[in-house]
Amino acid sequence: LRGDKIARGGLRWSDRHEDFRTEILGLMKAQQVKNAVIVPMGAKGGFVVKRPPKEGGREAFLAEGIECYKTFIRGLLDITDNRAGEAILPPKDVTRRDGDDPYLVVAADKGTATFSDIANGLAEEYGFWLGDAFASGGSAGYDHKKMGITARGAWESVKRHFRELNHDTQSQPFDAVGVGDMGGDVFGNGMLLSEHIRLIGAFNHLHIFCDPDPDPATTYKERKRLFENVKGWDAYNTKLLSKGGRIFLRSEKSLRLTPEIQKAFDLDRERVTPNELMRAMLQSRTDLLWFGGIGTYIKSTSETHAQAGDKANDAIRIDAPDVRAKVVGEGANLGVTQLGRIEFSENGGRLNADYIDNSAGVDSSDHEVNIKILMGDVMRLPKFKMDIQKRDKLLASLTDEVGALVLRNNYQQAQGISLMELKAPDQLSSHRQLMIELERKASLSRKLEGLPDDDMIETRQRTGKGLTRPELAVLQAYAKIHITGLLLDSDIPESKAMEGRLLKYFPKKLAKDYEKIALGHMLKREIICTTLANSMTNRMGPTFLMERVAKIGTTPAEVAKAYIIVREAFDLRSLWNAIEALDNKVPAQVQLNAFLDIARMTERAVTWFLTRLGRDLDINKDIAAYESGIKKLKKKLSDVATPDLHDTIEHATHRGMQDGLPEKLARDLALMPMLASSCDIIRIAGKMKIGLNGPAKLYFELGAHFHLDWLRQQARYLPTDDRWADEALDGVIDQLYGSQAGLTVRVLKDMKAGEGMAEKPGLFKKWMDTHGTQAQAIEPLFNDMRAAASVDLPMLIIAEQRLRNLYGG
Questions:
Q1: Backbone torsions φ then ψ of 289, nearest 5 degrees
Q2: Residue 174 backbone dihedrals phi, psi, to 5 degrees
Q3: Are 379 and 417 in contact (CB under 8 A)?
Q4: pLDDT at 809 over 90
Q5: Is 131 helix (H, G, I), strand (E, B) or coil?
Q6: Which helix (H) or strand (E) holds 661?
Q7: Helix axis angle, 556-569 relative to 619-640, nearest 10°?
Q8: Mean pLDDT within 422-448
Q9: Angstrom distance (rounded) from CA 457 to CA 630
Q10: 197-203 and 207-210 as β-strands: parallel, antiparallel, unpaired?
Q11: Cα–Cα separations (whole angstroms), residue 680 to 571, 734, 763
């Protein structure tokens, strides 16, 4: 099953003979959201061995499975288009009812984890153009276990959760309980990602490990030894266990617990069954519950065990309200059902979803495939003298950088969900609209994904609650997929400004040495659109693009262009990096609020470019036109600001420094509300052919005199109960900015203020003396508003209309 022409996913050797097609369909749905962070859409395949050999034992069974896998792969290749350079070669004796479709990439899955080289051998046999990029993770690929990439990606989520609980996992001890053993990829790598883990309990399919009061340093070394030797819990040096520690066999009928184990897992009986002990471990008061082994161990109270879909663990599965861990990390797939995640989150627990936490594996594979496609093009050009041995050596040398590129996505995706969570109650109406849009256009099923229906949303609105993290994770993933599709239908990927985004996807050496070939990459369009959709959604939230499209009546491509212009012209990357560099140095809440300050300014500036510029956007031209002006204004704001505005900037800077921000960053963030007006000032100066100082000073004086900052503040804090009131308020705020710009132009024109005149002090006072009769006439209106107990929407609309009359807007 393939989600699109450009799709990838695992091929599974299924053991569910009766319903393996249903299994694949369910996995396909999960793969779609997991693949949101990478270029290809989701895909999933699987097969069963219909006639297993009756003799020969495990070796014969494995050999038969491999033959079935080969048959499956050959079947796929038999009906897949091939490539020779730019030419497409359709398969022989096949009637094609679709267009050219040469992209076929398969991944390892349950039962086929070691089969990548077999698949690549078949691709070579067929002369398939992707060669050993056909099945990522083979002997010349990036070994996920050696890189520890899946666990490291999930650990970014774990670190984020603890950071927001004001705990640094990399320097402070914390308790953990887990599912898996040190010989496993995700569990083993995960339990080595901090030297401060106190692993008090874990279990796999054979053993139950209990260490009630572990020493972090000693136990870390022992876990490392087991990992390096691919050993299970039975190889653990029991002399290193703390008092009362034991390692039990799951096959025992009953277990005798020490007092220490009883206390650690709140058990009041000395004798328990293995299942009772494992249930108690899942329910224990621990900091982290780490899933690194196969199985679904937590469900919601509303679900049956059958609905959890993991019969083997029915006897130990618990309900979400019984989980007392602070944080759940899903390094493995589906450790918790989606409804279980939501219920755990509603009860105050912290988790995302498996497709967020463990996406680094698919992300690493995708980088591998796209790098191999690039290197295939390089190898076809004699001038580079690149053969397969040199390529393999080069690929190996890039392992660390590929890992860093992948982990960056994990970090930003988890951070994006935290930003969404912070605004979730206020944005519930917007999230509902997004769900409706995604239901119409992106195959979202609220029921299947466990998202609230309209009645539940009304209940949450009444109680002041928003969507939970697991629900927001679904919205984030679907929005990324939908936005990528919208951008692919635009001219964005062809823009020269997007070449830098494409090159950033690859390790620096490849981007530098093979720039021209990289810019001609087969998946250039897809890489650009996917990474841009990820960036925009992580930074601005999943509703940002579609809300701009709906409110302004523009296209997704224009919103994306405006976002790129604002990001570059305002040098937002530098600000984002400066905030992220403060991890574990300032409270996470301070960082998240700083990101929201930037997002608010960005929304305002994007709206400006879409509504006020008066012409089509030109990414490169507009970045150049506004970048230098914004830098100048930042330096001059203290000179041109009114005394009150200057005090506001200083107060905000001081408050930021009290929160732990460096002075420069605190000041840059304090300037954000003022910088939202910089585009108006720059355009006015350009049209009047004068310097920035005069229009800027006048602009802020007019804002102070006509209480425009106060009016906008009143509008922002007005409560809204539906999207129409919300849109009306947004419109009023935008018009109030327009009034400030319009009044600035009116004064400059009335006073015939050329270069010298505009800079002189007292220009506004002179205008009031000579042209201010109408302006003075609306002063009583402002006095009445400020004296009123509260300001409402009609009052703001009337104020804006009177101001517009002043400048003939």
A1: -110, 115
A2: -155, 150
A3: no
A4: no
A5: helix
A6: none
A7: 50
A8: 94
A9: 41
A10: antiparallel
A11: 18, 12, 19
Polymer length in residues for the chain: 809
**Residues 526, 530, 531: CA angle, nearest 5 degrees:** 120
Q: Is 618 exposed, middle or buried (0-12, 13-18, 19+ CB in 10 A)?
A: middle
Per the CB < 8 A criterion, the answer to whether 728 and 735 are in contact is no
Q: Using CA atoms, how far apart are residues 380 and 514, in angstroms rounded to an integer?
A: 13
DSSP 246-273: EEEETT-S-EEPPHHHHHHTT---SEE-
Q: Which residue has the tokens 């209106």?
A: 781
pLDDT at 756: 60
In this structure, what DSSP letter does residue 37 have? G
Q: What are the tens digits of pLDDT across the range 455-472?
A: 999 999 999 999 999 999
Q: How far is CA 757 from CA 285, 453, 536, 765, in A?
A: 71, 61, 42, 13
What pTM, to 2 d.p., does this model score? 0.93
- Predicted confidence (pLDDT) at residue 113 exceeds the cutoff of 80: yes
Exposure string (b/e) for 218-244, b if CB count within 10 Å is 16 or more? ebbebbeebbeeeebbebbeeeebbeb
Examine the pLDDT at 761 and tell me if it is beyond 80. no
Q: What is the CA radius of gyration of the chain?
A: 30
Measured CA to CA, the distance from residue 802 to residue 796 in angstroms comes to 10
Exposed e or buried b per residue across 515-536, where buried means at least 16 C-beta atoms within 10 angstroms of its C-beta: eebbeebbbbbbbbbbbbbbbb
Q: Are strands 318-319 and 298-299 parallel, antiparallel or unpaired?
A: parallel
- pLDDT per residue over 318-347, tens digit each? 999 999 999 999 999 889 999 999 999 999
**pLDDT band with cut points at 50, 70 and 90 for residue 728:** confident
Residue 482 has pLDDT above 80, yes or no: yes
Residue-level pLDDT at 354: 94
Helix (H, G, I), strand (E, B) or coil at 375: helix
Q: Which residues fall within 8 angstroms of residue 657, CB to CB, at 6 or more apart?
A: 663, 666
Report residue 416's pLDDT band, with 50, 70 and 90 as the boundaries. very high
- Nearest C-alpha neighbor of 698 from the set 745, 660, 635: 745
**How many Å from the N-terminal Cα to the C-terminal Cα in the chain?**
57
Marked catalytic residue, from 44, 159, 299, 480: 44
Instruction: Retrieve residue 776's tokens.
Output: 């003075």
Amino acid identity for residue 405 in this structure? L
β-sheet bridge partners, residue 350: 327
From 33, 154, 21, select the one nearest 450 (Cα to Cα): 33
pLDDT of residue 98: 86
Residue 754 in this model has a pLDDT that exceeds 70: no
Burial of 54 by CB count in 10 Å (0-12 exposed, 13-18 middle, 19+ buried)? Answer: exposed
What is the average pLDDT across 776-784? 87
Local structure of 467: helix, strand or coil: coil
CB 82 within 8 A of CB 49: no
Residue bearing tokens 């390096």? 228
pLDDT value, residue 750: 87
Q: Is the dihedral of CA 54, 58, 60, 64 positive or negative?
A: positive
Tell me the C-alpha distance between 231 and 236, whole Å: 8
Residue 382, both tokens: 């004699």
44 in catalytic set = yes
Q: Which residue has the tokens 């599965």?
A: 317
- Which token pair is 789? 């107990």
| Nearest CA among 719, 705, 739 for reference residue 790 | 719
Cβ atoms within 10 Å, residue 750: 13
Q: CB under 8 Å to 217, separation ≥6 — which residues?
A: 195
Q: What is the DSSP secondary-structure string of 769-806?
A: HHH-HHHHHTHHHHHHHHHSS---HHHHHHHHHHHHHH
Spatial distance between the Cα atoms of 366 and 148, rounded to a whole number of angstroms: 16
Q: How confident is the model at residue 808 (pLDDT cuts 50, 70, 90)?
A: confident
The tokens describing 235, both together, are 């190889």
Mean pLDDT, the chain, whole residue set: 93
Closest CA to 140 of 398, 358, 508: 398
The helix (H) or strand (E) run that includes residue 174 is strand 174-179
